[in-house]
Specification:
This protein is α+β, with helices and mostly antiparallel strands. The protein has 17 helices and 13 strands. The strands form 3 sheets. A 5-stranded antiparallel beta sheet has the order 1-12-11-7-8. Strands 9-10-2-13 form a 4-stranded mixed beta sheet. It is elongated and about 100 Å long. The relative contact order is 0.14.
């Protein structure tokens, strides 16, 4: 029996060790040790950075997502685009063979299959790609410069292959593609899933078009339709996600940013579309942009989305291996078996070695433990309980001349809620697959053990039942792959400022000041400023521990 316990402990060590290594990568990012973070990711996902840099195995997508995010945080947008494009391309390739993978997953461990990326992850890949192109374009145009050594940053962050206008067009095209073709795929395949559209990505597609120095009437038409669809999607997402006790959804049905930016974008296209938008969300407190002013859209990526953890459900089943002989001697004899079940892992509340015992009829006991004793179980991905997030930060603007000011930010995208909802919507399917694998893996053991018992080899049947069931249990590993550096919340604020130069900062709820670079604002212009700071990831690690 001690050997059985040791084997089960060793089986559990693999996932636990992987989780610790993931924690260390996030700690390295939070501490700005980016070289160690990249090395940790390469080792964790067994990549070959000295090869062609492209990985086609089952972990390729999540590795590319993580490496792309680390590069994005470092403001190395060219490098980030390379990795994020890998993730997008591999996701597209995987979707072409979804059916064969669905069938194969009934018999193969989930972790041995290629990871497709959850729908919200695939959409956010395109979002970061588009935002990266937009930052390259604005740096090239001289309207935004990130904090730090501007010259050194620009040589690493702007792709010389594209001119400024080409970078703007790439940004608009990628974001529009994310909100159209990719989200159409999500809607077609989501079934009853609650993540059916992404209103923030749609609104950002409109913002990317509005930020271009020269915008055609056709492009304004596209921006207006994206803003209108964003309004509809915000209303629908809140209906689907708000109020679920398993997670909070922290976005209002009508964010102020949506109302103001959508009002201005739709006004540039067509009176009918503008009227539809106003009917959907109402008139903003701030309508037209004041004369001689421009706008700065500050985006703050905060925290990390819920990470998958392991929920182990284990079962020791016991049966009367001599039940048939007992009935032959005494037809009136009644035989029972039993099992003890325990589980450990996070869930609605943290589950810690909860023991439950049951007697079971002989037929079921014989099926569970044909040799007299079996070790069974499943491992499922779950999320730890959600902690209440801090209040949104404030954005501060400091002009070259004049008095500084500030404005409160608002939550415009709750990616954490998307992650929790997506896993919850798929858990029934995952559990069904796990049960199917248990039956498939244990069926040969049951047949062999029964034949050994029929031939009078009780010892062999006992050994077959124990070893076979234990082998099936050890190969059941929860698929906890996910994008661990994916932001949990997106905050934003739209500043209307007189034309001029400004330094920007984000002040978090705890008083921490994060520099967001500087902008050169022209009348009527829109500049987008992202903040994706490494310290945001650390609080989630400490919370999970």
């Amino acid at each position: 029996m001690s050997g059985v316990v040791i084997a089960m402990v060793l089986a559990a060590c693999g996932p636990r060790s992987t989780e610790r290594r993931k924690d260390q990568v996030l700690i390295n990012v939070a501490e700005r040790d980016f070289a160690a973070a990249q090395e940790g990711l390469d080792a964790l996902y067994n990549s070959n950075p000295h090869g062609d840099g492209r990985r086609q195995d089952q972990h390729g997508i999540v590795w590319a997502m993580e490496r792309g995010t680390v590069a994005f945080i470092r403001q190395r947008y060219v490098e980030a685009e390379r990795f994020l494009r890998m993730a997008a391309e591999q996701a597209e390739e995987h979707r072409a063979r979804v059916m064969s993978r669905e069938i194969g997953s009934a018999l193969i461990n989930e972790t041995l299959l290629p990871y497709d990326g959850a729908p919200h992850e695939n959409v956010f890949v395109q979002y970061l790609r588009g935002l990266g192109f937009l930052q390259q374009a604005q740096m090239s145009a001289g309207v935004w410069m990130p904090p730090g050594d501007g010259d050194a940053l620009q040589t690493q962050a702007v792709d010389p292959e594209f001119d400024t206008l080409g970078l703007y067009e790439n940004a608009a095209n990628v974001l529009r593609g994310a909100s159209e073709s990719l989200l159409t795929w999500v809607a077609d395949h989501a079934g009853r899933d609650r993540y059916r559209d992404d209103p923030w990505v749609r609104l950002m597609a409109a913002a990317a078009i509005a930020a271009k120095p020269r915008t055609s009437d056709l492009e304004w038409q596209g921006a207006a339709m994206q803003a209108l669809r964003a309004a509809e999607a915000y209303r629908e997402q809140r209906r689907r996600l708000h109020g679920d006790p398993l997670f909070g959804y922290h976005v209002s049905q009508r964010p102020d940013l949506l109302t103001t930016l959508g009002y201005r974008v739709t006004q540039r296209y067509q009176r009918e579309v503008h009227a539809r938008f106003v009917e959907a969300v109402g008139r903003p407190q701030r309508g037209d942009l004041p004369e001689g002013h421009g706008s700065v859209l500050v985006i703050n990526h905060r925290g990390t989305a819920a990470r998958k953890h392991v929920l182990d459900i284990n079962l020791i089943a016991v049966s009367n291996a001599n039940a048939a002989e007992t009935r032959r001697r005494n037809p009136q004899a009644v035989s029972y078996g039993g099992f003890i079940m325990w589980a450990s892992g996070p869930g609605w509340a943290r589950v810690k070695n909860t023991l439950i015992g049951f007697p079971v009829p002989e037929g079921l006991a014989d099926l569970l433990a044909p040799g007299g004793l079996s070790i069974l179980g499943v491992a499922l991905p779950v999320h730890a309980p959600q902690a209440r997030p801090a209040a949104p930060p404030r954005v501060r603007f400091i002009p070259e001349q004049g008095s500084p000011g500030e404005m409160a930010m608002e939550v415009v995208s709750d990616v954490d809620a998307y992650a929790r909802a997506t896993l919850k919507d798929g858990q029934a399917r995952l559990f069904g697959r796990a049960l199917g694998r248990i039956v498939a893996k244990n069926l040969p053991t049951v047949l062999i053990a029964r034949e050994q018992r029929r031939q009078g080899d009780a010892g062999g049947a006992a050994l077959t039942g124990l070893v076979g069931s234990l082998a099936a249990r050890v190969t059941e590993i929860a698929d906890t792959r996910c994008w661990t550096t994916l932001p949990g919340l997106v905050d934003a604020a739209l500043l209307d400022l007189p034309a001029g130069r400004y330094r920007l900062q984000v002040q978090e709820a705890d008083g921490t000041i994060i520099e967001a670079g500087s902008v050169q604002l022209a009348p009527g212009a829109l500049v987008v400023v992202p903040v994706h700071h490494p310290r945001h990831v650390l609080s989630n690690i400490l919370q999970d521990r």
